[in-house]
Design goal:
It contains eleven helices and 14 strands. By secondary structure, it is α+β, with helices and mostly antiparallel strands. The model has no long low-confidence stretch (mean pLDDT 90).
Length: 320
Amino acid sequence: MLDILSIIPGKKKVTQGGWHSFNAVCCHHRGHRPDKRQRAGIKFVDEHNWNMNCFNCGFRCGFSLGRTITRNTRQLLLWCGIDESQINRWNLESLQQRDLLEVIQHKKRKKAKVKFKEMPLPEAELLDYSDLRHKKYSDYVKSRKVSNYPILVTPNETGRNSNRVIIPFTYNNIVVGHTSRFLDDRKPKFISEQQSGYVFGYDLQKPDWSFCVVVEGIFDALSISGCALTGADISDTQAQILMNLNRKIIVVPDQDSTGLKIIDKALQYGFYVSLPEWNAKDVNEAVIKYGKVATLLSIIQSATNNKIKIEMKRKKLERV
């Protein structure tokens, strides 16, 4: 199969970051001065898959076993003197591995049982948008662009408890907790009864959906029918719940210093990461500004598991 290190001409050295550095073969082909400072690098994702980046002219490519050899990768091989017919043979061999890899991935994703105990909800009323007693609650929910979820309210309570909306937590259609979002200016804004490892929104996912968008906050998830971690971390149990969905997982961190910490964990579990270029701090704010469809489209278009692309976007956001 395609042994890229034996194809790249000249000397190579391995950096502390795991890059195999060499003099780039792409630069002079793209109108730049020839590289003599080993400013190109290849980093392996695993035994077969790799990414290449030239830190001189900006050329990038990669290889994923089971997928078609991309135009840029094909160009790199041609620059290295590989015959077109050999590239086509490697491409065919890669595609022949696709079915085998899918079987392996399916076995890896075999569902593991995760259980939570059933928990009671507070005494409350189901939010009724036509009930005048519920107006302050319904106005708030509408402002967050949320609909089609059974939200509870407590207009007959006194004190701070009269000024909240309650979002039930379910798993396999069993109530396993809840969170109260208080509508006043006091802190904490949220008070939750939540079991360790829980992922909000699991029951919102449809069996025919090809991907699941994973966010931090409850209202982020409700506004796009996604899943929420309710924090800036991913536990092993949460990762297993998401993998049980057997679909592409796209993690969208909040675009702040705390939220960006979740990126490394997402990649560790083999998830995709999406960092759309919004003028918004999180998904719910993006939905309010741009609408649900436009927000989802930008999330999908920005989703990648390429560590180089993700790191470049993360550094850009950290500078803002």
